[in-house]
Amino acid sequence: MPRRHHSLAAIVLASTIAATAALTGCGASVMVHRPTDHVVDHAITGLWVDELVRTAQDGDWLLSRSYSGQGDAVVVLTGGEELSHAAMIDVTHRTVIESIGSGVREIPLAQFVDRNRHLIAVRPSGGEVEGRLAVARARSKIGLPFDIGGMAGLGSDSRFYCSELVYWASGLQEQDPYREIVITPGELLKYGAVVYWSGKRDDPQVQRIAAGWAVAHAPPRVAAR
User: Fold this and answer.
1) Extents of the domains making up the chain
2) What are the residues facing 98 on neighbouring strands?
3) Is domain 30-207 classified as CATH 2.40.10.220?
4) Residues 104, 160: contact at Cβ < 8 Å?
5) Are 117 and 65 contacting, i.e. CB atoms less than 8 angstroms apart?
6) Which of 63, 81, 176, 210 registers the highest number of CB atoms within 10 A of its CB?
7) Torsion angle of C-alpha atoms 47, 49, 51, 56, degrees rounded to 10
8) Integer Cα distance of 142 and 218 in angstroms
9) What residues contact 218, with CB distance under 8 A and at least 6 apart?
10) What is the pLDDT of residues 65-89, one digit of tens each?
């Protein structure tokens, strides 16, 4: 597949991202921190899952900022929005398909949402693959290893890193043969429309809204006899 010529600086940057991510692993972020009120923190996760199920469609991308050290590395070394990861949502089954260090996998939507500081849902445009088919394409790659070489510009058809997986599954790679050699989560914003923004987990307004949501969705109390 033909690709645009890339400068040495761009390849060095991509290599640095890959190496730093590998070194930081899954340790906790030193840049962002979760709310200390665990009840409110849990309510925010429930609120965002509810909003995503009502707003997103199968095949939409979820761009996020995690609470991991690897997320810190990606944010520091890439430009644009503060985003460290990309995944694809299956609203029908309330799951997310993603590629992480251990490879491509599918997890519950609530588990994915819970580990992130904020989320953006993007509806990809310009590709030839509709949402359900995009989900099926992404799911067909479950079990494949993470493409650490792809983050350094040395891609492989049998491996995927996070944003590469969703970009490919949506059929955009076939439409954009001269794309950047490495696609970061923030760069995916150029390929679709934002349909949902969560706000930040540590924002007092988000916390107030989540607390109200939790009260409204609390199970009814059983009257004592």
Assistant:
1) 30-207
2) 87, 105
3) no
4) yes
5) yes
6) 63
7) 170
8) 35
9) none
10) 999 888 887 888 777 789 999 999 9
